[in-house]
Backbone:
């Protein structure tokens, strides 16, 4: 970039360049953005030029970089905040406000304490305590450097929790990879093999969470062809805080205290990199964008921050994530209507000779920014010192809404804060493309036992124990319901944490995601993810549920990607509102495209509920021979995107829908039955349908089961055994009930479609009798376990 | 002395992370437990104000070099004098997981010839390799001399979780193993549900430990280290499958360890 005619070095004793914007035409503006790695479009470059025309001078590289990162998709969420133009010319002003935040606003739940505006969403827990939750994506870095990318993803989301003064108490991670047996010869240059990415990501997540002593309690792993070029890494963190200690009241004069790790060249342009598609050159160009993780540094940082919080010494806090100091200082000043005076030479560096712009936007890990009133500064610095954490005042907030940055006594940047936070609105066009899909036609197979076993060993369904065991899910000693449960480590529907020693109240954490449906229709994919997250929560006894939305999508500048995003957002509004579950936080990761194509539209919904008494929660493993098995919820002919179709090589079209009224009724019935103590086990029916859910309950409990399909409540078009077994209709549960509660249970759930369909056996056989009474599945718990424990990617 | 007067010092540094739940266990029994940063204890030199010293689990100083190695050396160089007095006076020391690794790295365990300047044993990389978080069964082998387990009947099977990557206990010679056995220093061994020794078999023996060793004490029985986490098996609701019996039992087996050590001090001092 140096030596080009548009950029010239300033005569100062360090590296500082002036960018000749004032004389640049449109073509040059675009080129400058590219050369400097700003990822700004022409519109935005013109706005910057106009601003500096008004000031009568050219900007410095520090100013350009600060603007580039503040206006990046990653930091500013241009797509979600911008205008979407629909095919008929109608406009949606901000997807975020129109569909996501609107749910929360309209529901107006009194227990929502802070939503969307801070680093994490906060809901009330009990007494003075609140629960903070955040889920992030770290796809782009993980594609380049899986271990570091995933580890820093966890590190970053933990800092988000610290950034609302909460103590992190649990992590979640949901991952998406390409098939692990993907043919090496089909990998385009620059794309790493799924197996390599898988190992690195899993190791990175375990490394960070384990070292920090935060249990990883919930998650999921999906395999999909579209993830070969676009790995999906969602990292979530849950924290707890005394609400009275949630202090955000910085004012002019307060010190900007930078604490934690030193600043280096790692993580330069992380955010702008995340706002571009991955290419063959990504590794070469963007390797420095991936940061290096040091969980022990963050562990110390956490201790100091909690002490400072408890003593009430700081006036606000935020983390350094995407955009580094630039984001943290800019946003702090903006939020509190201040300006800032920053001295970059005070920032502790890993090594000398880092240019001022690099210091300002570096995304080196394990750093937090606190604002501290003058009178508390010494005390705060001492607390950090006692924890062996480096902390420095790098400047102060000012009262004039101007950001001024100094280095070596020279002013290297001066930007009006309002301008910094007022980028031109983005306009994106959306078109709705219906994929040309057909429902497959085939005869019902004779042998359904083998299909069931095959589906159980499908990588999306098979046991994830080998991964889960590498994460510490017990540290802190508060995990009441663990990710693996029962005799044989069955898959829990949700995790339950008991965060307070003197209370039985629990936090219930679950998730929902089904990219396979996204290939058919993003609208029903989103609806299904919401239903799945909520029903997983309900299955263990969770209620008063708050949601988080995390979108992973392709390039929003392409209208068809935008169209499916709009549809998913519409579903988010309708169904979250319908379930009365407000969104409290969310994040989008766009530009997930590689030479292999775009990522399958993927929406992760994380649900955080409350269990009033953890001693009454229910796990999914069958408990006792002689108990009855009920199904609650109606089965429809909805096999589009199902594991059954996938096992037969189809995608299909009949994607599962969500029928709100029925869904709500089913969930209420389940909760009531759990509360009345009639339920010994409960499992949600999702991928693989009724058959897989029943098999999982049996193998987890190590007990046999016999089922009769005849009475399964179903739409009348469902007349085939394989449809009843494998349809993935939403809002359904399997429930184990002791014989003695039969009548009471049936009375309790009478408003929902339900049926008694089976009995837990005292041998280990697993038998399903079809609609005509014929035995259609005949196997045993050992065979189920063997299949489930041995994932197979097929040929 | 009264249990309420017992003071427990739980040492932490950067990377320690099981301190809060360990403190909770002691406090539930009525003892007074404090989590103290090593920086502070070495500045104030007040270790001898405490009756019990605990090194909790975690990744002290990132577990660089070898797990526990850096903290072990730091402790011995900064407060080694107090530690020696502490041991001489028969005050018990407990090391859990990373704490066990620290006690071995510090030369305090197995302590075949008193405090050693170099480690006499090692907690080596797991076989099969890798970090693993899982529940195991343990057989109590102690004959009542170990301060941390004396309340537990010999032969009793205990259930607790392990969570580590380096827990394979090894010694430098067969002879040392014989001495450990003869001295009655082997306190916990990995076994199956029915109490049959794991005999090195995975997953019953989760890390390939020599002689299925999960926990040992010094010849006097005052210093005890174990890889499993008793603080994560203190309450019944921490058990991995309590939902199978409907309501959680009040306590788990881990409580027996804390109860033993606290009652030992109450009786002895």
Residues:
């Amino acid at each position: 970039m140096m030596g080009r005619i548009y950029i010239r070095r300033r005569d100062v004793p360090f590296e500082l360049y002036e960018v000749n914007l004032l004389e640049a035409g449109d073509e040059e503006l675009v080129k400058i953005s590219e050369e400097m790695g700003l990822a700004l479009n022409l519109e935005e470059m013109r706005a910057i030029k106009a601003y500096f025309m008004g000031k009568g001078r050219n900007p410095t590289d520090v100013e350009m970089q600060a603007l580039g990162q503040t206006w990046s998709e990653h930091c500013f969420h241009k797509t979600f905040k911008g205008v979407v133009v629909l095919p008929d010319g109608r406009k949606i002003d901000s997807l975020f406000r129109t569909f996501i935040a609107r749910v929360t606003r309209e529901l107006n739940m009194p227990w929502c304490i802070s939503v969307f505006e801070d680093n994490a969403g906060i809901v009330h827990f009990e007494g003075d305590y609140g629960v903070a939750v955040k889920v992030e994506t770290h796809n782009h870095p993980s594609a380049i450097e899986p271990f570091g990318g995933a580890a820093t993803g966890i590190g970053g989301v933990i800092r988000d929790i610290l950034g609302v003064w909460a103590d992190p108490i649990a992590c979640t991670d949901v991952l998406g990879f390409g098939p692990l047996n993907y043919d090496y010869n089909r990998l385009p240059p620059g794309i790493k093999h799924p197996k390599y990415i898988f190992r690195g990501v899993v190791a990175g997540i375990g490394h960070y969470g384990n070292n920090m002593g935060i249990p990883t309690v919930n998650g999921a792993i999906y395999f999909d062809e579209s993830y070969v070029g676009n790995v999906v890494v969602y990292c979530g963190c849950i924290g707890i805080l005394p609400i009275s200690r949630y202090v955000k009241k910085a004012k002019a004069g307060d010190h900007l205290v930078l604490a934690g790790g030193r600043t280096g060249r790692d993580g330069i342009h992380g955010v702008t990199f995340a706002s571009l598609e991955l290419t063959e050159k990504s590794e070469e160009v963007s390797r420095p964008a991936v940061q290096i993780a040091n969980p022990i540094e963050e562990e110390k940082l956490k201790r100091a921050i909690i002490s400072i919080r408890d003593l009430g010494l700081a006036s606000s806090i935020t983390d350094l994530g995407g955009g580094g100091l630039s984001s943290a200082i800019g946003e702090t000043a903006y939020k509190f209507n201040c300006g800032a005076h920053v001295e970059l030479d005070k920032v502790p560096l890993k090594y000398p000779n880092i240019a001022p712009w690099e210091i300002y936007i570096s995304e080196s890990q394990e750093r937090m920014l606190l604002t501290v009133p003058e009178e508390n500064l010494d005390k705060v610095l001492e607390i950090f010192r006692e924890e062996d954490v480096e902390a420095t005042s790098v400047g102060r907030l000012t009262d004039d809404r101007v950001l001024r940055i100094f280095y070596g006594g020279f002013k290297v940047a001066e930007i009006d804060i309002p301008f910094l936070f007022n980028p031109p609105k983005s306009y994106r066009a959306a078109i709705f493309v219906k994929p040309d899909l057909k429902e497959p036609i085939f005869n019902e197979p004779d042998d359904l036992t083998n299909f069931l076993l095959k589906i159980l060993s499908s990588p999306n369904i098979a046991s994830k124990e080998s991964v889960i065991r590498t994460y510490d899910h017990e540290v802190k000693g508060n995990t009441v319901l663990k990710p693996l449960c029962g005799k044989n480590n069955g898959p829990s529907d949700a995790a339950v944490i008991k965060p307070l020693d003197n209370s039985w109240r629990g936090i219930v954490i679950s998730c929902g995601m089904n990219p396979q449906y996204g290939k058919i229709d993003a609208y029903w994919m989103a609806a299904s993810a919401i239903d799945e997250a909520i029903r997983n929560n309900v299955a263990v006894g969770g209620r008063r549920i708050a949601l988080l939305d995390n979108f992973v999508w392709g390039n929003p500048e392409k209208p068809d990607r935008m169209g499916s995003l709009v549809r998913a957002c519409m579903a988010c509004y309708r169904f979250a509102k319908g379930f009365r579950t407000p969104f409290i936080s969310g994040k989008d990761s766009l530009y997930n495209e590689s030479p292999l194509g775009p990522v399958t539209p993927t929406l992760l919904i994380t649900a955080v509920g409350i269990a009033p008494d953890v001693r009454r929660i229910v796990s999914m493993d069958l408990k006792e021979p002689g108990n009855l098995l009920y199904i609650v919820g109606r089965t429809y002919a909805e096999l589009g995107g199902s594991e059954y179709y996938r096992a037969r090589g189809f995608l299909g079209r009949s994607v599962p829908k969500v029928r709100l009224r029925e869904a709500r009724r089913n969930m209420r019935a389940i909760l009531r039955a759990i509360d009345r103590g009639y339920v010994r086990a409960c499992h949600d029916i999702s991928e693989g349908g009724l058959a897989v859910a029943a098999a999982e309950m049996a193998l987890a409990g190590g007990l046999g089961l016999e089922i009769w399909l005849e009475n399964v409540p179903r739409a009348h078009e469902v007349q085939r055994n394989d449809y009843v077994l494998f349809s993935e209709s939403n809002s359904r549960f399997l429930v184990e009930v002791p014989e003695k509660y039969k009548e009471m249970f049936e009375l309790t759930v009478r408003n929902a479609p339900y049926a008694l369909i089976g009995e837990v056996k005292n041998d280990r056989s697993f038998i399903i009798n079809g609609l005509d009474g014929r035995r259609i599945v005949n196997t045993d718990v050992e065979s189920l376990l063997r299949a489930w424990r041995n994932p197979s990617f097929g040929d | 002395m009264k249990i309420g007067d017992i003071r427990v010092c739980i040492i932490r540094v950067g990377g320690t992370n099981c301190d809060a739940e360990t403190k909770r266990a002691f406090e539930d029994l009525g003892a007074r437990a404090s989590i103290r940063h090593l920086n502070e204890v070495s500045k104030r030199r007040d270790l001898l104000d405490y009756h019990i010293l605990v090194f909790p689990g975690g990744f002290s100083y990132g577990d660089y070099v070898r797990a526990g190695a850096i903290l072990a050396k730091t402790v011995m160089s900064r407060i080694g004098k107090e530690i020696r007095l502490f041991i001489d006076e028969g005050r018990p020391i407990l090391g859990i997981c990373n704490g066990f690794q620290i006690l071995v790295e510090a030369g305090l365990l197995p302590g075949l010839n008193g405090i050693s300047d170099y480690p006499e044993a090692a907690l080596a990389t797991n076989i099969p390799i890798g970090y693993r978080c899982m529940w195991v069964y343990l057989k109590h082998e102690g004959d009542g001399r170990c301060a941390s387990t004396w309340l537990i009947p010999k032969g009793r099977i205990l259930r607790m979780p392990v969570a580590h990557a380096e827990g394979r206990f090894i010694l430098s010679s067969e002879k040392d193993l014989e001495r450990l056995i003869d001295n009655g220093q082997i306190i916990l061994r990995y076994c199956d549900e029915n109490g049959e020794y794991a005999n090195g078999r995975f997953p019953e023996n989760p890390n390939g430990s020599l002689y299925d060793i999960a926990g040992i004490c010094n010849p006097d029985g005052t210093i005890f280290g174990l890889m499993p986490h008793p603080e994560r098996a203190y309450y019944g609701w921490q058990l991995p499958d309590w939902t199978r019996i409907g309501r959680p039992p009040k306590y788990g087996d881990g409580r027996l360890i804390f109860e033993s050590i606290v009652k030992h001090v109450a009786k002895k001092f």
Summary: Residues 7-80 of chain A form a domain with the Helicase, Ruva Protein; domain 3 fold (CATH 1.10.8.750). The longest strand of chain A covers residues 167-177. The longest helix of chain A spans residues 559-579. The radius of gyration of chain A is 27 Å.
